[in-house]
Amino acid sequence: MKITDITYVPVVVGYKPEYQHDLRFYPKPPAQSNVVVTIHTDEGVFGIGEAPNTPGLYGENENHTIAGIEYFKPYLIGRDPVELTALNAEMDRLSPIGNHAAKVGIDMALHDLAGKALGVPVYQLLGGRVHDKVVTHISPATYEETSAQVSKLMAQGYRIFKQKMSGNTEYDLRLVHALLDQVPLDVTISLDVNQGWSTTQTLRILGELERRPQFPTNIIIEQPTHAADFAGQAYIRRHTQIPLLLDDGIRTADDLRKIFDLGAADIVSLKMSRVGGIQKCRQMIHMAEAANVSYIVDEINDMRIANTAVAHLAVASRRPLYTGVTCHTLLEFDIVGRGGVQLVDGCAIVPDGPGLGIEEVRYPDAVPAGGSR
Amino acid sequence: MKIIGITGKVVEVAYKPEYKQDRRFYPKPSEQANVIVEIATDEGLVGWGEAAHSPGIYGENAAQTMAALDYFRPFLVGRDPLQITALNMELDRMSPIGNVAAKAGIDVALHDVVGKALGVPVYQLLGGRVHERLITHISPATYEGTVAQIERLVGQGYRIFKQKGSGDTEYDLALIHSLLDQVSPDVTISIDVNQGWSTLQALRIIEEIERRPTFPTNLIIEQPTRAADFKGQAYIRERTQIPLMADDAIRTVDDLEKIIELGAADIVSLKISRVGGIQKCQQMIHMAEAANVSYIVDEINEMRVANTAVAHLALASRKPLYTGTACWTSLEWDVVKSGGVQLVDGHATLPDAPGLGIEALQFPAEGQESDATR
Predict the structure, then answer these.
(1) pLDDT tens digits for B3-23?
(2) What family does this belong to (chain B) (predicted)?
(3) Phi/psi of residue B3, each to 5°?
């Protein structure tokens, strides 16, 4: 089997209205697009992937990604798509750093294609299924209605919330107190600051939370400070018993090694969409397991194609603390018409169909200029 | 698909006569046996694996592996073999440490049966083929005929030799000098001491070799001192430009982490048979790649079933320096009757057949059945 072409369509990631007035610190450009990648072969089988972009964190947008795909394309056409590692090595040779999202979209589409060609789900390419389902977090908006939204989601079965922080001490403390007052202890809240606090601000906020009448055993503090300040995060970790989750600073295996060397995290968030694909994310899972550090198999601005790939990796992983595959439910438009990851009672379930198990991809009516199918 | 049986067959690892008089430091019990593992399924497919033993290094022998198969069997029968990771977790839950050979044999057999079930070679379960073929080392015996044996092997195309050291300074120095005098600089010699030297002895020997008229750029020093003395090895590594390879002590990811942390090796030897299977070995490869430490995908006292599994992993790995899949050629008896890893011009190549690509096994006559099963 040979790759004959790689095509792509940028699709606007349209968050629902409540996320438009979100107070999160995390910088979200008004219009944000992911790129749906299709790899075509001479045998008619094709693979679908998604390159999610998070320009407000990493600077990459859909135009960078499309240029990255065009750069890689001539080196991939004519190659056998089932050679997943060799093709990843080829992309790394061409671009030792950078082009993360393009690598993600291509690696994901290769896995979908290889699964379809072999007649097995993607998780079977990753060592087979370990979990029938994995509990997933979900992110309520950070606005005046957060509490009500959390109540609705709890009623749907969700038990882990990734709650974005604003970066403002008073606002964030008030929000966290309100949430802790509201939810039972078996509901976990991860306070995702996206680097919005300083180190001293973090210690001040954690100190106040730790002095609540009941110690908050159900919160996690996520990426409180500047992504690359692992030493500062190790310092924070030594000064609190609230688990510290690191996230934004993990783009390469070297980042992860530094975190482990410094003992900077209780939990690491491993995101295929941020680290360059399924293979690289799985390598990091292997590293975290070797280092005995907890991990979550996570999403970032993913539509349901990428969310589905995340779910495959999560159900094939030994001990993910939880996963994150709900971002697609926060969007106005679901790119997957049929198949893909399903959410039942706050858990992710992947289909047993070949590849990613996505039966139909549909695009919003207006395909942006420059898009091709 | 369900696992309906797991059986083991003990097969003696009989080295050819020249290896009997071998002066290697490495302690080899006179009789050593591996266990061929077979996993049978309700759909008629069977998977083969090999549990390789090095009792002289790790204490584990065939009888213990047979006991371990009995111990693990009830927890695996009835399970779906496609769930390779989940079944490895079950083995680890039952035996967080220990039973390394049995785990390796079962894990290899699982990969074989899954490959057969899906109609793909094992390397495809590991991310697909990266290399068409890979250069392999081979181990000549360490005896008066070593130089002649190497000449023959060079004639066959081999370019990397894992030459066992004796532990005796004078003997080893004489051997190394004669080998370096004999081979061309494009032939690599890894002096595998198997922990036979002290730190001071290692430094003394390395110094003398470094003062040769031509610096020996084609030499590797492998596991010179006691396995667990990573600090000592980091010390040796700082004092020489000859690459240092760590080997015997790497049984768990924690061992590998320590070596990486201490900067104790230029190269690590990663062996399916020593670390508990393909999955664990691939995890270590991922760790070595992340740490930018060179690695070889290697063998240890293996017959051709395990050697074939090693070749699958090696060919699916990004940048192994080389592999080691030639041990079976040092044996009197080849347990693989057809299929399996082939050695061509000093390289390992694999058939594109499903699973390990081993078509038939054969066992030494004496009262043993000639087919692998039951």
Answers:
(1) 999 999 999 999 999 888 888
(2) Belongs to the mandelate racemase/muconate lactonizing enzyme family.
(3) -75, 130
- ipTM for this prediction: 0.87
Fold of B125-360: TIM Barrel (3.20.20)
CATH 3.20.20.120 segments of chain B: 125-360
Q: Which of residues 253-272 of B touch A (CB under 8 A)?
A: 253-254, 256-257, 261
For residue A231, the distance in angstroms to the closest alpha carbon of chain B comes to: 17
pTM score, whole prediction: 0.92
Whether B225 has a pLDDT exceeding 70, the answer reads: yes
The 8-class DSSP code of residue B355 comes to B
Contact predicate A336/A304, CB 8 Å: yes
Answer whether B289 sits within 8 Å of A253, measured CB to CB: yes
Q: What is the CATH superfamily name and number for domain B3-121+368-373? A: Enolase-like, N-terminal domain (3.30.390.10)
In the A/B pair of chains, how many CB contacts fall below 8 A? 84
Mean pLDDT of B14-33: 84
The closest alpha carbon to A38, from A331, A326, A355, belongs to A355
Could B257 and A290 be called an inter-chain contact, meaning their C-beta atoms sit closer than 8 Å? yes
Structure tokens that stand for B97 in this block: 């440490």
Confidence at A372, pLDDT banded by 50, 70, 90: very low
d(CA B171, CA B211): 18
Across-strand partners of B244?
B221
Best residue of A88, A124, A260, A268 to probe chain B, by most B CBs closer than 10 Å: A124
